[in-house]
UniProtKB/TrEMBL annotation:
GO terms for cellular component: midbody. One of its GO terms (biological process) is regulation of mitotic cytokinesis. One of its GO terms (molecular function) is microtubule binding. It comes from Mauremys mutica. It holds the Pfam family DCX2_DCDC1. This is Doublecortin domain-containing protein. SMART domains: DCX (SM00537). Gene3D superfamilies: 2.80.10.50, Doublecortin domain.
Length: 695
């Protein structure tokens, strides 16, 4: 930009010089009276200075136009990167004065060492907390190692304007200039390009597992140098800096100490807005950490009076209260956690009416309003009693309405806020805060009513009484059942044989001491109903997820503890003994089947669940905790007896084939000769029958 400005100045000065020379010639012939009005000395100095900045590239030499005997070259014989390029005396045989121009790269290479190119040295950067750009004015022209990257080497790109005799530096794209500036001032290039992959200098390193490769820019490589084993990327590597990727959170990449790379947009269109935002944040941080702000906070903390409270656990009612005195709210929470022996850190305080307290002034304000409300209620009661005694009939109703409206307005006007605490007299505030404030400490759960514990205890006692009554009735009915059975057996009444016409069962036994009476059957039915009712009561008590009944709590309050939905069962394989089972867990039937497959080492996945009696289980509600289950891979339920029969059948089959040969078990089925002609009937005849009857 500097050289481009100089080029424009050179064009303007050249044009101005021609015009002035023409004007001077005309004025000399017209006998100008006063020559002091012409700005000739100042103009000549500026023209001379601009003329010294004009060069000509001829015969691979950069020759100064004002002094053709001076060219750009290097005086030091020990060539290295960083050597300053100066005007030296022209020598045709000195290769340190000759340059090779590469048009496609827009670079000037030193003939004696083509790896060194003509470049502008970047200015030194100092931490400044204000809007500023890199000041390129006065920067030296030096030798640098040639960078083959498309972005990040803008200070090596030149443009030679032959007509103007000017060399313009930084003749490259805007992206190349931004990447060059970002690498110089240690700004991550992800802030400039985001996730666009570009050709830029960088390094790479492997993750601790060695499976993932991270590519980072020069600024990030400087930040983690010495912490990771870095390897330089080859030329032509297209990538974006890994500091902006999601995996970078595990490795603390990025050159910034306080700013997140992913949230910092320094692209061409958003750089100004980002800088304004960061300056505002910095100004606010300076304000917060200023001596005046800190002194105000310290004075406010010193003026804050200590507050006494009686802390109870949330949901414990008025049991086991602890007296705590503190002057700050964090200290109050810390002491509540310690003295109440909470398992988690206390984070909320509730008053008796369920109002959440988050600061100490809020707590003091609530105490003041509560004190005023109590005093007003006493005065209003006395005033209302006096009005009721003095007035009669309709006048009493009208007076009471006026009184209620007046009391409502009075209560609204007397409501205090934390900002209006300074209006209260210190002596009055001391008297109000003399008595400790009752609060209920919570670890994050919502407020529970104060009478919830007492109601829960009463409900539990009622449940136990109901349970005891059911057990007593059940024991009485079972005792009566035993008495009836004993009397029937002791009587030893003979049974009656009744003939029937059925060929299957010609004689039926009726009566006798083995047959139950009607009274016993009715009593047995009552016992079964009572046991069912008792199991339902037990299930309802067992499934309670909280020590407080859900009916006692408001619908917006959730339970402090939820019963886990996972169920544990004892599972065994279909056809095996229950003793050969294992424990299995699950929250659903599918999850329980998968766990049974793994725990029982089944070759096929489990697909069905049965009770020990062979009843299939279809829904999750039918499965109870610690239940005995039979697991099947899809085959029907098999009892131990069925398994034994299958084993015996296989043994007989194998024994016959071993004793009489493989053909002994071959069976040929053919239709019967008698029923061949009959319609609708087919009989099967066995040509060889060697299988025993028990099979």
């Amino acid at each position: 930009k500097l050289f481009l400005d100089r080029c424009l100045v050179a064009f303007e000065e050249e044009k101005l010089t021609e015009e002035l020379q023409e004007n001077q010639t005309e004025e000399m012939f017209l006998n100008i009276k006063d020559d002091s009005d012409l700005p000739q000395p100042k103009l000549n100095a500026e023209l001379q200075k601009a003329h010294h900045q004009q060069f000509e590239f001829r015969d691979k030499q950069i020759i100064n136009c004002a002094f053709p005997g001076l060219v750009l070259g290097v005086q030091d014989a020990n060539l290295r990167a960083g050597t300053e390029v100066v005007l030296v005396e022209k020598k045709p045989d000195d290769t340190n004065q000759r340059w090779v121009w590469r048009d496609h790269d827009r670079t000037f290479h030193l003939m004696s060492d083509p790896n060194l190119v003509l470049a502008v040295s970047m200015p030194s950067t100092q931490p400044k907390y204000s809007k500023c750009a890199l000041d390129m004015k006065g920067c030296a022209v030096v030798l640098q190692k040639y960078k083959e990257y498309s972005n990040g080497a803008a200070n090596q790109k030149w443009h030679y304007m032959e007509n103007a005799g000017v060399f313009s530096a930084f003749y490259s794209t805007v992206l190349d200039q931004e990447i060059t500036a970002a690498n110089h001032v240690s700004v991550c290039t992800f802030s400039v390009t985001s996730r666009e992959k570009i050709d830029q200098p960088g390094y790479c390193f492997l993750s601790p597992s060695g499976k993932q490769k991270f590519m980072i820019c020069l600024a990030c490589a400087r930040a983690i140098r010495g912490k990771k084993e870095l390897k330089k990327l080859p030329t032509g590597s297209m990538f974006f800096c890994a500091s902006g990727s999601e995996e970078a959170n595990h490795f603390s990449l990025g050159p910034f100490k306080c700013v997140n790379v992913m949230k910092t947009d320094l692209s061409t269109l958003e750089a100004e807005n980002t800088l304004n935002y960061l300056e505002e944040v910095l100004a606010s941080l300076r304000t917060e950490t200023s001596i005046q702000t800190i002194s105000e906070k310290i004075s406010a903390a010193m003026n804050q009076k200590a507050v006494k409270i009686i802390a109870y656990r949330n949901g414990a009612g008025y049991q086991n209260g602890q007296l705590i005195i503190a002057s700050t709210f964090p200290m109050l929470l810390t002491m509540c956690t310690r003295q109440l022996e909470l398992t988690r850190k206390a984070c909320r305080l509730y008053t008796s009416d369920g109002i959440l307290m988050l600061t100490l002034p809020d707590l003091v304000t609530w105490a003041v309003n509560e004190c005023f409300r109590q005093s007003d209620s006493e005065e209003d009661y006395k005033e209302r009693t006096a009005i009721t005694d003095s007035a009669e009939g309709g006048a009493a109703l009208h007076t009471e309405d006026k009184y209620m409206e007046k009391a409502k307005i009075k209560s609204e006007l007397s409501l205090m806020t934390p900002d209006s605490l300074n209006m209260i007299d210190d002596s009055l505030l001391t008297i109000i805060l003399r008595n400790p404030i009752e609060v209920w400490v919570s670890c994050g759960e919502p407020f529970l009513p104060l009478d919830a514990l007492q109601k829960a205890a009463r409900q539990e006692k009622q449940n136990w009484l109901e349970k005891d009554k059911i057990l007593a009735d059940l024991d009485a009915m079972k005792h009566k059942m035993r008495q009836l059975q004993g009397r029937r057996i002791t009587a030893f009444k003979p049974s009656t044989l009744v003939p029937t016409k059925s060929p299957v069962q010609p004689v039926v036994v009726e009566g006798g001491w083995t047959e139950e009476t009607e009274e016993e059957m009715r009593l047995m039915e009552n016992i079964q109903h009572t046991e069912t009712h008792f199991s339902e009561v037990q299930a309802s008590q067992f499934k309670r997820s909280s020590p407080f009944s859900s009916k006692l709590l408001s619908s917006k309050h959730r339970c402090l503890y939820d019963q886990p939905s996972a169920k544990r069962v004892w599972a065994y394989r279909n056809g095996y003994k229950p003793e050969q089972g294992v424990y299995a867990w699950g929250k659903t039937i599918s999850e329980l089947l998968d766990n049974c497959t793994t725990r029982l080492n089944m070759q096929q996945p489990a697909k069905a669940l049965y009770t020990p009696d062979g009843e299939p289980l279809q829904s999750w509600d039918e499965i109870e905790r610690d239940m005995l289950l039979c697991v099947s891979a899809g085959s029907p339920f098999l009892s131990r007896r069925a398994i034994k029969q299958q084993v015996e059948l296989r043994a007989i089959y194998a024994r016959i084939r071993k004793q009489q040969g493989p053909d002994a078990t071959n069976i040929v089925v053919s239709p019967s000769e008698k029923l061949k002609g009959q319609k609708g009937g087919i009989a099967l005849a066995v040509s060889k029958q060697v299988i025993p009857e028990e099979q």
